[in-house]
Predict the 3D structure of the following.
Amino acid sequence: MNAFEEVAAQQGTALPVERGFPIIRGEVTTPSGVRLCYEVAGDADRPVIVFANGIGVDIPGATSQREALAKRYRFLTWAYRGIGRSLVPHSEVDVSMEQHAEDLERILDALHIERALLVGWSMGSQVNLELIRRQPARAAGYVALLGAAGRPFRGPFPAPIDRAARHLFSLLAAYPSPAQAALDLAVTLPDVAFQVLSLAAFVGRDVDRVVFEHNVRSVQAADRRLYLRTMVALADHDASDVLPLVRCKSLVIAGTRDTMTPPRMAKELASALPDSDYREVPGGTHFAPIEQPGLINGWLLDFADEVFAPVVVAR
């Protein structure tokens, strides 16, 4: 039994093999009392891919990527503090991108994972950059999947709207009832909410509705003040100074219909990274990973094979 298997046996719950790969779920508790829940899928002797989700997305939000990548690699994802079963002692805990990166570092340390390919969807792109800032040698590769280096709302919106959005998030964090009511309505009337969001090009009509609606429910179930404080932290965060220091290979993936992190932002990110490739998902919105998972997962697998070469990975 290797170090990972020993820790998993102590901290996690081994589940029956699903679709040809084992799954282990466990948790790590921080000194401040935050419980971080994680899931690891795939054989223990394989190289590791870390998947950092978007804001408010629980572990099942990465199911499409897990199903494709865990057959060849070990796939690790976790729930951010306050999301799903990652419980917090109170709603004023630190939810900065730096803190989320420290949480990931704590999980990697607990599982004795020294090096991994870091894939970040939306907010996860910024979280992973903070991990690279802390421990650059830990990144075997870096993928920004519909994400930015920082200040994400400055890209798609004019400066006055960006400032107004930031103030709105702060106001809602102090008085969260309206935001909670809107999310409760979205869960109660999912078809109506989906029609509105798809008409606004926030999500594509080809999205996996089961996974998408789970994501909506995970946001709706989160502590509203904590979630909105995370949104403020996301809006204020900037890791663009880390980009020139990224020494691993990078891949930047954009969606041509993504109104949150449009291709222009993604191209700027790719150009700032020393060794990067750029891909676009035709017709993809900010939810492209669950709209066109086959295309994106194929790119991720090819990139992982390149990053981990000459590690022998059975196909």
User: Anything to note?
Assistant: Residues 1-18 have pLDDT under 50 and may be disordered.
